[in-house]
Amino acid sequence: MNGSGTAVAAPQSIEEVELLVKRLYKPGSPRTIIQINDHLQQLQVSNEGWQIADALMGSSDPNVRFFAALTFTVKLNNDGSALDAETAQSVQTRLITWLIRLAGNNDSTLVTKKLCSTLTTYYLRSPVLWKRPLLHLALSMRNGDVMPEAGINVAVSMKDLLQSLSDDLVVVLLWFSSTLADEVGRMEHNTPGQAQLHDQMEVIVQDASLLLERAFSLATNDASVRIKAEALKSFLIWVNYAQPVWPRKPESLQYLRLLVPAAAQCLIDPSLQRDALDSFRDILESYTSFFQPQQMQLLARIVSEHVRPVLLQALQDKDPEGLPYGQMVIAFGDANIQQVVEQPDNIEGSDAIIKLHFDILKAPGYSGDEDELSIQSIEFWNTYIEYVNDVTYSKDADDPEPPWLDYARSVASQVIELLWAKMWAPPNAVAKDWSDAESEGFKEFRLDATDLMLSIYVFLGKDMLRQLVELALRSLEAKQWRGIEAALFCLNALADNVLEDEPSEPVLATLFGSSLFREVADFSQNIPSQARRTAIDILGSYGHYIERHAEYLPDTVRFLFASLETGLLANTAAKSIASLCSTCRVSLTSELDGFLQQYQRFLGGPTSDPYTKEKVMGAIAAIIQALRPESRKVQPLLALLENVENDINLAKASAAGGDTELAEVMGVTALTCLASIGKGLQVPEDIPIDIYDEDEQQPGKPNFWESQEGQVVQQRIMGCFSVLQVLGNSGEAIEAACQVLRSGFAEVEPGPFVLPHSVTVSFLQQCSINTPQLEAVLATACILITQHSRSNVERINDDVGAICEQVASFMRQLSGPSADPGVAQSCIDVLCRLMPCYPQILFGEASALSSQLELVLDFTIQAIDGQDPFPKRSAQEFWVRLIKPPAATIHDDVLARINQVVTVYGPRLAQTIMNQIAGLGQRSELDGLCEPLKALITNQPAAKAWLEAAIFSQSFPAVSAEVGNAEKHRFLQQIIGLRGDTRKTKDVVKEFYAACRGTVVSYGS
Asked: What pTM did the predictor assign?
């Protein structure tokens, strides 16, 4: 087909091919290249095709010549290994002849390189080994025509041949040498079929090294720059080839290593320096051991004498052209990290590298697009600190400290200060003109820098903390807010580590006891909002420290609430208020009335939105939780609930007025805030139980929250659910209501949010199959059942029964799991929770669900037989629990009913499982299917008969012809014999699945 979709007849002559190429070829269009190549391949069925392609190489059109070379390549890839020796020799002669002619005529680079690639394909595909391709080609080039390979005299010197060749011919040889190393390097080197080609490369590298030596030895002039640049590329390709193939063949590798001094001279030549830097950096990063010690010393001198001056000038000028010079320094430092760390007195090596990395961080400009090197230099410092930490923490306690350790501490300390200085955020006048790329680059640097600081903290510990605090206080004294912000940003990243280190407390005291938080709370000062935002973050991060030092709470909380009323800071302040109040709740109870008043004032301000209201309400609720006795909680709780009720009333009024959008916003906000209050009131897990607590429950005395006063609060909470009457179609509202219900599930004592179980049941019963977020409601029911399945917790049989009746109703309405896989999975999950405490709900003789048992069980079988993975997974778990019930916790008559059900449904379950394993299921589902399969085999004596009937039934799906009755019998014997061995059963099932799918060559052999 041509580009317009019209059929194009296969060309039959040279003229037709030329016309075809000229008509179809469009530069840069892969589609037309494929079209032309498809037509040219049709010429390859006979020797005539070779002759036409051969003749095409004489076309005056370089595009035609390119496709002719491509045709040779395709022909060799497809049919090269089938050529006889005579034809192979003929092909080789053609290709060399044309390469010499193209090189001698200064033909297009594209065509010449393509022919070099074709010659490489010949080397790879020819049945006759081409022993010395570079020598053979060089000899033919010198003679101006192809020379018979068999007639090459062993005395022919590759070195002498190269001296007789023109520069253009040397470049062509370099192209061929590079292509050869690159293509052979892509082949497996440890398989017998390719071993001969790789063995021959050990001979070829000798010729390649002489070729590279010839190129590198040229006197520097305009003509030699091109040759040396190609030589650098070829040298790199050969080194990359050698890395995986010759790790234990130093004699072959040595031919390349001997070229390092000559290649390194390109690092000194200004016209070649950039190319050389890229090549040497690549080797340093990927193949460090290639360089021998004396070669590393040579590179160290070059870096010190030739790279360093250019880099320093580029850094000073903010010149992006300095990037490769800096990358070379980074790569060299990484590659020599042991010497850099352990030999700091080496002025030309280690000392120079360390100082250059300091210079990179000292360079003017902001990290990101303006300064890429500082981001990349962090990789070196990560390597440096990682090495120091490995050595420090791997030595025995009695071993002396390494002599270089004090210097490493000094280096790490300087790195901290340099990183801190580099992390200063730009002034607004600069930042507003930044592109997205510049902003993201700066953020990336900050994150990478703080990750590095975490590693440095492992090394320096409290000394590093002291240094950062001193930087912050020094900046505070000078009113350098960007410096303060950078220091706080670093301290924020270290919080988890610092808080685990008790000796750090006195250092933190100097920061939190300073005037910092009083000053940032003074909004009459012109302080960048980012500095205040980071100060807010640090209060959330160091809440546990502040909890132990209540003297710092007044300043910090005052600052947070002041920030809450500032637009740019509100969300960050709300988050930190929530964290700090949760952590320091006991110390803040005396401030509760003031917080409530501040919250009321905040509600009337512009920063009051759903997020900030939710966070602050949760924060105040956490303080309320710490009040003792319980009766003290009532009034502040009612004050919070009043705010929730105001939003609910507004939602109802908006709905009545037709403003459904505002109604949903206010209603969802109210329920979300209510859930946040419930979460805040939860007893923290780390709070110890005080056996002398005056509020401890006395025998015979009702719990406060079960008294009339406590019930008033709970009734107000339950009344908030009335908003769902106007928001029944809001998934967000349903989800928020579920969060309210769940907030009380985790409590072990009565509380305001420990609502009657009937509330959850009623909520579920009011849902229909079309209720948004029905999965969340069912998940809430699951949690309720799970919570009341724990030991020493009352059983709620009637409530669980009502839940299961509603689940059965949903299953009936769905008519099958595939109708709504999410709801189907959630329904089955509820059934899974019935074991071990509530199996009688479904299987008891007197159960109200007994009439719907068949519906429920059929639904779960359909789920396993379906295509939806999640209900399938839950149904598998359900049947595993049913087949292996915990007999010790289940009444005998219920257990007998369960066994009866399994006996009745066992054959159908076995058929469903076997059908899935035979190929109807997905491979990723096999591990899950193995669970009910193993349960049947290990718990049901009749399982063998059920599985055998299933695998030989008419319902068994059509499978590969490789799987006959013998293979089926063998599979059954294996899984029965394994008796539930998990790993082996899975392996056998996967093999059988692959055999049934026909994706294995043979099965059972």
From this structure: 0.75
